[in-house]
């Protein structure tokens, strides 16, 4: 199920926000960022937003995802940039305010059945086996 991520606002006084889920929850969670934008009161300065997470070796890594400036790029669409919680958003430079918005997807493991995907109807199986012959390219 998809839930709207109400977002967060990063400012000079609140430089970071951590999105985490209950450790007892055995569901898979995906947090997707849609938009990062400067909001009312922002100065014309570079505002760098970083995503802080963990790599495959469980080491903390910080990756800049947006560099916003009021006069040239006040908004950035991140096209549903997917992250796995826990994740921290940090204002690495600038004073903001910077607003982040997106959505949160919860996939319950008992709902995720891979067996259903393998069941093709007879017509679909026939269509898959009747492939058109490969023709040589024209020179």
Automatic annotation (TrEMBL):
Principal cellular location given in the protein's record: nucleus
Gene Ontology MF annotations: chromatin binding; histone binding; RNA binding
Protein location: Nucleus, Nucleolus
GO cellular component: cytoplasm; nucleolus; nucleoplasm
InterPro entries given in the database record: Nucleoplasmin, Nucleoplasmin_core_dom, Nucleoplasmin_core_dom_sf
Compositionally skewed regions (Acidic residues) per UniProt: 113-130
Highest taxon of the lineage: Eukaryota
Any coiled-coil regions, as ranges: none
Protein name according to UniProt: Nucleoplasmin-3
Region (Disordered): 113-139
Regions that span the bilayer: none
PANTHER family: NUCLEOPLASMIN (PTHR22747), NUCLEOPLASMIN-3 (PTHR22747:SF13)
Residues making up the signal peptide according to the UniProt record: none
Protein family: Belongs to the nucleoplasmin family.
Keyword Metal-binding carried by entry: no
Keywords in alphabetical order: Acetylation, Chaperone, Methylation, Nucleus, Phosphoprotein
GO biological process terms on file: chromatin remodeling
Domain Nucleoplasmin core: 7-105
Self-association and partners: Interacts with NPM (via N-terminus). Forms a pentamer with NPM at a ratio 4:1 (NPM3/NPM). Two pentamers form a decamer.
Function text: Plays a role in the regulation of diverse cellular processes such as ribosome biogenesis, chromatin remodeling or protein chaperoning. Modulates the histone chaperone function and the RNA-binding activity of nucleolar phosphoprotein B23/NPM. Efficiently mediates chromatin remodeling when included in a pentamer containing NPM3 and NPM.
SUPFAM superfamilies: Nucleoplasmin-like core domain (SSF69203)
């Amino acid at each position: 199920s998809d839930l709207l991520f109400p977002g967060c606002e990063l400012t000079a006084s609140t430089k970071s926000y951590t999105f985490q889920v209950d450790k007892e929850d055995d569901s898979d969670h995906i947090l997707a960022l849609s938009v990062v934008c400067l909001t009312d009161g922002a100065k014309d300065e570079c505002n760098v937003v970083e995503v802080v997470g963990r790599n495959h070796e469980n080491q903390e890594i910080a990756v800049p995802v947006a560099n916003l400036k009021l006069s040239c790029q006040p908004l950035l669409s991140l096209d549903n940039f997917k992250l796995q919680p826990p994740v921290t958003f940090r204002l690495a430079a600038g004073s903001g305010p910077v607003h982040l918005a997106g959505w949160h997807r919860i996939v319950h493991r008992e709902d995720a059945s891979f067996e259903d995907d393998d069941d093709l109807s007879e017509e679909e199986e026939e269509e898959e086996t009747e492939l058109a012959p490969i023709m040589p390219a024209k020179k």
